Amino acid sequence: MNKNKKKTTVAAAIEYDRKKASAPRVTARGRGFMAEKIIELAKKHGVPIKEDPALAQILSRLDIDEEISPELYKVVAEILAFVYSVNDRYRDQTSKPEAQK
Questions:
Q1: pLDDT of residue 47
Q2: Once rounded to an integer, what is the mean pLDDT over residues 69-75?
């Protein structure tokens, strides 16, 4: 195996809107340059990023707008819990009044 071989970046984005779907769905996916653009846009817009190469590989095989399968519910629930906690911390930081001098 060539140890100098660079791994291809893989990225997938999911969205969960209980009003629109019964399960999270894939909203973007890509490899290489496209994956890097997905990550760049997520960072630019403050979207939390969770690195999970195995899950990214699985999600990148799904079609855009395809709901995840029940076998992925648990791992995606963990990702969503991570995102919600990041959002809560951000909200707490931005809603605190500035310390008085």
A1: 87
A2: 90
